[in-house]
Each structure stands twice: as structure tokens, then as C-alpha cells.
Automatic annotation (TrEMBL):
It comes from Potamilus streckersoni. The chain crosses the membrane at residues 522-546, 567-595, 601-623, 635-653, 691-713. Residues 270-283 have a biased composition (Polar residues). InterPro entries: AAA+_ATPase, ABC2_TM, ABC2_TM_bact-type, ABC_2_transport, ABC_transporter-like_ATP-bd, ABC_transporter-like_CS, P-loop_NTPase. This is Uncharacterized protein. The lineage of its organism: Eukaryota, Metazoa, Spiralia, Lophotrochozoa, Mollusca.
Length: 717
């Protein structure tokens, strides 16, 4: 049968008769000292409609080769033609619907049901719901899978592998790439799977070509052709019977061992010859770079008589295999974006607890902020040493101290008061002199003629714990205020003009804001902006990295999705989530905590959502450079502090070194916070510079970051 198949294949008049044709394919991982050459001048020929068993020891490069074939990996040099064109070539269905790929790892969404999983991939492949249903029913029965409403996470390991297998079979692709599909499958089912593979490869309609790797070498005897792979090369590529016959052996395993032994000897001989030649000062590298590839192909046709070089080989002589269009807007498929969005919403629905937490998290953060940050501290324990017991002025001064903020603790002596500060019982003490009443009256009466002794005795002394600057400053301010009020009262009692006691600075009606600004109100816009930004960054990073880590992203890309489609679908899904988050956040800030706002709400929402969009774009960059969730979380968290600092949200930008100021001004958050502050306090007016500056900076940054993320993903794709 194998022979007739090969004859049929050799006789085909197609431009590219082979389903997969590879010539001198090289692929390495890493660079410099860490470079690992995995595929080393590999030649391969898989006839159309054949079952091709790719056999080889662990780590010899089988998965790498398969990923190059489905267009998920770039190879370094050589030629690879899959179903008539380069994998990834523009308009080619690989990666895409021409191929069904079952990766080695399960690569399934644990939170989705079997039916939802198949529907997701069916939509990507452009199947309508009727045909998805029909194929799902067939595959469930054929692979003895549980009901379609069972969650993937509730399945056994073997069942998960079968679901993964069914995903590859779902759309009846022309080419099936199966990386160890029979692992964890019982012998009976394994036999049925092979029967099915044989039937679809030989069906009278569209013949399916199947490349399969397996650790059960003997099961590959059912293949039409096997490729025995070692160290990134194919040692032999023949029909199993031919191999057994040629090597006079009765098992493929023995043939493989024998070929490995021969190859090892050949390597040793080659190495010896190389060493001898090198000693003679001759260049004897095995790869002759000057040799034209086409010529090399002709030579190899003699070595591998079944390899037929495609006529248009020069078209495919690009160094990279997967060079097709993956991110141009014209190539976006709405059905792919829709499939991805449905999948995202399904996963959200499945994890309703986390979704509610996501909705509430910004609200919790703003509530905590409004409750705890920017408010005046109260009940501060403050020691009082009042030696002016004979007079009235000391007591009068103390009654003017804000009793809400300062809780007075009397002490009988300065030493006792200082001990309380040292023991951490009070934040400081106020010391009032014995002669305070007489001295203060004298001071006001004589003014410029007052003696130094009068001035000293009429001065109250503060001994503060300055380790907490904020509290110390508040106490100073409260004492200064109390002194001013006390002085005014005293002057009134003596029929003098109380204005003499005032500091000769008058705060007129402010241009914007109030004369009693609230720190909370000042901080609120920046906090709203940063909460939205970092939540979007963190959640985007995490969701992308998790999909990438579990091979789900790779599988979607192999099914024909593009990274831009995945990004757009994520942006749209996340925008819905963010809209709810922002709504709850603004209700808390504006309605419950009365952060003042003048501008139209829609403009506030636009500014905040735009900042979330910017955060998502940054998250996509993080996820494209991180391979696991811990590094992604570190990236997202690590960026929080410097971004907050540089953006002027936790400290005015004007207070940081000049060169950093320039960086800060270029950050979107700085201008966005300014813009939001402006809209909240002055109302929307497009002519106000902070508003359009904030809008344009955020917009520019978002699009720029998205573009960078798309480029990184494109390069890594
Ligand atoms: N992303 C990667 N980065 C660096 N090295 C890699 C990467 N993927 C695979 N390798 C290395 O490339 C070599 C071939 O790996 P590959 O997965 O292709 O082997 P395999 O033949 O499929 O093995 P197995 O049968 O165990 O799955 C291995 O040495 C592996 O460590």
C-alpha cells in the first residue's frame, strides 16, 4: 500500500506534489555560547494523503520541526513548503484552517466545557454552528468523550488529550499535525484512532495528510512512511516495510537503533577526518555555504529519490519560514475577534467570583483612599506643661487648640513632659512660661519697645517628635493657628485692633479651588487614573501570560488567529469590564465621597477609560516579554512605584530632579491626572491646555504602546 501511495505521489502533476517538503532546514535556539542547534540541515518529504510517522528520541527536535511546519516557529535557513507554499505566507492557510495541530501539551481552556472549546476553534475555522454541532457529536462519540457540557478541568488526563485531539480533527483539515496523540490512551482506543487516521488519509474525497509523532515506535508501522530522526536530521525516510526489508530486521525499533549506531560511527569518522584536515590547515567544514541551495537539492534528490524539489523553489528561499502577513489591518477577520471575545466572556462568566472582585477592586481602593489618605489625623496625644498657673493667658491659649486633632495631656514639669515624648506616649509638648500672662500683655502693649526677656517669656516652646514629619507639621500648624486666635481674642479684650495679630498676608478668593483645599480632593484624580492604569496593566499581563504559558495562545495562533486579532478582542472585552469598574469607581468617588466635579461626566469617563486602555497596552508589552506569571507580576508591580513617583501623583513633579522631570512630563499619567483634575475642578473646556494635552498624550501613548506590543508579538510569533 505504501509503495502504491508513493507511486501515486510521484506521479502527481501538482506544482508542489509533496504535502510537506523541507530542504536543508536549520533551526537553533539561543545565541552565542548558549546557541543550541536543533534542526541541522534537515530534509523531509511527506507525500500528500500519507500518514507520516516522525520517530526519534526525546529532544531530537521533533516538536521544533512540527512547530516550523505549522508556521509557529521561524527557522533560520533552508526551505520548507507546506501544502504548496511557505508556512505563514500571505493568503496561505498555514497557520490556519488548512492545518489541524495537536501540540504535545494539552493546551485547553480548563474553565471551558468540551462543547465551548470545540465551538471556539470551530468559529476560528469559519464553521457554522450546524457543522460545529455535527462534528462535535461525531468526535465525542468517536473518541468516547463525556458529555459536551463537562468542564475541561474536570476531565482525566487521557480525556483532556482526546479533547485536544478532537480540536485538531474538528475542521477536517488537509494536514494534521499530531504531537504524540496516543499518550495516555488505552490500546483499544489507540487502535480506533489509527483506524480513523487511516480512513481519513485514504478517503476518496480530500485526502488528509497526517504527520504524527509517537513514543510507541511499533505503532508507526501502520504509517505509510516513517522519518527516523536523530540530532536534528532524518537518518532515513521510507515506508516502514521497506526499512525493515532493507535492514533485514523485524522491528522498527531495531532498525532505528542500527541506524543510530551507523550514524554515530559516521560522525566519529567525520570528526577524525575534520581534525586531520584541520591539522593540515584546510577548511573542511561540512556545510559549504557557497553551494547553491537548488544544486544541493538536486544532489539530495539522488540521496533521497523520493524528494521532488518544488519548481518555484527560488520563491521560497527566504531565511524565515513564517513570513506572512500577521498584523496588517486588512487581514483582520471579525469572526476570529468575535470567537476570541466569546471565549473571553465565557471564561469570565465561569469565574464569576473573580469577575465581581475585578469589578469591586477599584472601588475598594478608592474607598480606602478616601477614608484613610489625605484626612487630618485626630486625637494626637500632645503633652502640655503650663507653668502660667497664676495668669489666665496660658489657659486661654490652650482652649484655642483644636480639640479634635490635639488631645492635651497635662504634665507638671518640662522633664516629665520630655520623658513622655521619649517614651513615645506623646507626639511632643508645649511649654508655657511662669510669667506668660504678664509677658504677653507687655509684648502687645510695648510692641517694638518690648525687652528680650518679655519676648522670651511670652514665647511658647514646642518640643516635638519630628520623626513623623506629617504629624509634626500638623501640630505646628494647629499651635500657630491657636496662637493667632488667642492673640486676636486678647487684643479684643484690651480694646485693640485684633488685625495686628494677623500675619500680614491675605489669601484672596482663589482663581480655582477653595482656600481650604482638601488633600483628598487633590489626590483623587491621580489615584483614579493610577488605579485604572495599573489594574488594566496587571490583569492584561496576567491573562496573556497564563494563556501563553499553557500553550493556549500558541494553539489559537496555529489555528489562524493573529496576535493583533487576539489583542483587539482582549481590548474590547476588557473595555466592557473597565466600563463597569470605572462606573463603580466614579460613583464611590463623586457621589459617596463628594470629590467635587464640574465637568460633564462623559469627559471624565473618557479620560479614565483612555488611561485604562494605555495600561492594557503596557500589559501587552509585559506579557510579550514575560514567559511566566511571576515575572509578569514582577514587571507590573515593579513599574507601579517609579511610574507613580515620576508621574507626579505621589509627589509634585516640580519637586524631583530636573532630568527626571522631563521623563515625568512625557508619561501619560502626569498629563492625564492634570487633565482629570482640571475637568473635575473647572469643567470641560477644550481650550484649557491641561485637558487636550492630557487627552492627546494618553491617546498617543496608548497607540504607541499597542504598536510596540504588536511588533514584539509579531517578531516573537
Ligand atoms: N523554546 C526553546 N528554547 C530553547 N531550547 C528549546 C526550546 N524548545 C525546545 N528546546 C530544546 O530543543 C531541543 C529539541 O526540543 P524538541 O521539543 O523539539 O524535542 P522533541 O524531539 O520534540 O522531544 P520530546 O520527544 O521529548 O518531545 C531540546 O534540547 C530542547 O531542550
Amino acid at each position: 500500500m505504501a509503495a502504491s501511495l508513493e507511486n501515486g505521489y510521484l506521479g502527481m502533476q501538482d506544482e508542489y506534489p509533496a504535502a510537506v517538503w523541507g530542504k536543508d532546514v536549520n533551526k537553533s535556539y539561543g545565541r552565542g555560547k548558549n546557541k543550541l542547534s536543533v534542526l541541522q540541515g534537515l530534509n523531509m518529504n511527506v507525500p500528500r494523503g500519507a500518514i507520516y510517522g516522525l520517530l526519534g528520541p526525546s529532544g531530537c527536535g521533533k516538536t521544533t520541526l512540527l512547530r516550523c511546519i505549522v508556521g509557529r516557529l521561524h527557522f533560520d535557513s533552508g526551505h520548507l513548503i507546506v501544502l504548496g507554499d511557505r508556512p505563514g505566507a500571505q493568503g496561505h492557510g498555514i497557520p490556519g484552517s488548512m492545518v489541524g495541530y495537536m501540540p504535545q501539551e494539552t493546551a485547553l481552556f480548563n474553565e471551558m466545557t468540551i462543547g465551548e472549546t470545540l465551538s471556539y476553534f470551530g468559529r476560528i475555522h469559519g464553521m457554522n454552528s450546524e457543522s460545529i454541532k455535527k462534528r462535535t457529536n461525531f468526535l465525542l462519540e468517536f473518541l468516547t468523550l463525556p458529555k459536551p457540557n463537562r468542564l475541561v478541568k474536570e476531565l482525566s488526563g487521557g480525556q483532556k488529550r482526546r479533547v485536544s485531539f478532537s480540536v485538531a480533527l474538528l475542521h477536517e483539515p488537509e494536514l494534521l499535525i499530531l504531537d504524540e496523540p496516543t499518550v495516555g490512551v488505552d490500546p483499544l482506543l489507540r487502535e480506533r484512532i489509527w483506524k480513523h487516521l487511516l480512513s481519513i488519509s485514504q478517503s476518496s474525497g480530500q485526502k488528509t495528510t497526517i504527520i504524527i509523532t509517537t513514543h510507541y515506535i511499533e505503532e508507526a508501522r501502520q504509517a505509510n512512511r516513517v522519518g527516523l530522526m536523530r540530532s536534528g536530521r532524518l537518518l532515513a525516510e521510507e515506508a516502514p516495510d521497506t526499512l525493515l526489508h532493507q535492514n533485514h530486521m523485524d522491528s522498527l525499533e531495531s532498525v532505528f537503533l542500527e541506524l543510530c549506531r551507523e550514524d554515530k560511527n559516521e560522525d566519529n569518522t567525520q570528526d577524525n577526518v575534520t581534525v586531520n584536515k584541520k591539522n593540515q590547515g584546510q577548511d573542511c567544514s561540512r556545510d559549504n555555504d557557497d553551494e547553491p541551495l537548488l544544486d544541493a537539492g538536486l544532489n539530495d534528490t539522488i540521496l533521497y529519490p523520493n524528494i521532488i524539489a518544488p519548481r518555484n523553489i527560488t520563491d521560497s528561499s527566504g531565511v524565515h519560514g513564517a513570513g506572512g502577513c500577521k498584523c496588517c489591518v486588512k487581514c483582520l477577520h471579525p469572526r476570529n475577534i468575535l470567537a476570541q471575545m466569546i471565549k473571553n466572556f465565557t471564561l469570565m462568566k465561569r469565574n464569576i467570583g473573580f469577575l465581581l472582585f475585578e469589578f469591586m477592586l477599584p472601588a475598594i481602593q478608592i474607598v480606602l483612599f478616601c477614608l484613610c489618605i489625605g484626612r487630618d489625623p485626630y486625637d494626637l496625644q500632645f503633652g502640655v506643661v503650663n507653668m502660667d498657673t497664676q495668669g489666665f493667658a496660658g489657659n486661654l491659649l490652650l482652649t484655642n487648640l483644636d480639640s479634635q486633632v490635639i488631645h492635651q495631656v497635662p504634665y507638671s514639669s518640662l522633664d516629665a513632659g520630655l520623658d513622655s515624648v521619649k517614651a513615645g506616649k506623646t507626639w511632643g509638648i508645649i511649654y508655657i512660661n511662669y510669667n506668660f500672662t504678664i509677658a504677653i500683655i507687655d509684648r502687645f502693649a510695648k510692641c517694638a519697645n518690648a525687652s528680650n526677656t518679655t519676648l522670651d517669656e511670652s514665647t511658647v516652646k514646642l518640643h516635638l517628635d519630628m520623626t513623623n514629619q506629617q504629624i509634626a507639621l500638623i501640630i505646628q500648624e494647629k499651635v500657630a493657628q491657636a496662637f493667632q486666635d488667642f492673640s486676636s481674642n486678647l487684643l479684643i479684650q484690651f480694646h485693640k485692633n485684633p488685625a495686628i495679630a494677623q500675619v500680614p498676608i491675605k489669601l484672596e478668593t482663589p482663581v480655582y479651588g477653595s482656600n481650604m483645599p482638601s488633600f483628598t480632593n487633590f489626590m483623587a484624580p491621580g489615584v483614579i487614573i493610577s488605579i485604572t492604569f495599573f489594574l488594566a496593566t496587571g490583569l492584561t499581563t496576567l491573562s496573556f501570560v497564563l494563556e501563553k504559558k499553557e500553550g493556549l495562545l500558541d494553539r489559537s495562533l496555529a489555528a489562524g488567529m493573529t496576535s493583533v486579532e487576539i489583542m483587539l478582542a482582549h481590548v474590547m472585552t476588557q473595555l466592557v469590564v473597565m466600563a463597569v469598574q470605572v462606573a463603580i469607581l466614579l460613583v464611590c468617588a463623586l457621589l459617596i465621597f463628594h470629590v467635587p466635579y464640574e465637568g460633564p461626566l462623559i469627559w471624565v469617563i473618557v479620560l479614565v477609560l483612555l488611561q485604562g486602555f494605555c495600561g492594557m497596552a503596557l500589559g501587552m508589552i509585559f506579557s510579550s516579554i514575560c514567559d511566566n506569571e511571576s515575572s509578569a507580576i514582577q514587571c507590573a508591580l515593579g513599574s507601579v512605584y517609579p511610574m507613580l513617583l515620576l508621574s507626579g501623583i505621589i509627589w509634585p513633579v516640580e519637586a524631583i530632579p530636573t532630568w527626571m522631570r522631563y521623563i515625568s512630563y512625557s508619561l501619560p499619567m502626569t498629563y492625564a491626572a492634570d487633565a482629570l483634575r482640571c475637568v473635575l475642578s473647572r469643567g470641560w473646556d477644550i481650550t484649557l491646555m491641561p485637558v487636550w494635552r492630557g487627552f492627546l498624550t494618553t491617546m498617543g501613548w496608548s497607540l504607541g504602546l499597542l504598536l510596540i506590543a504588536a511588533i514584539i508579538l509579531r517578531i516573537k510569533q
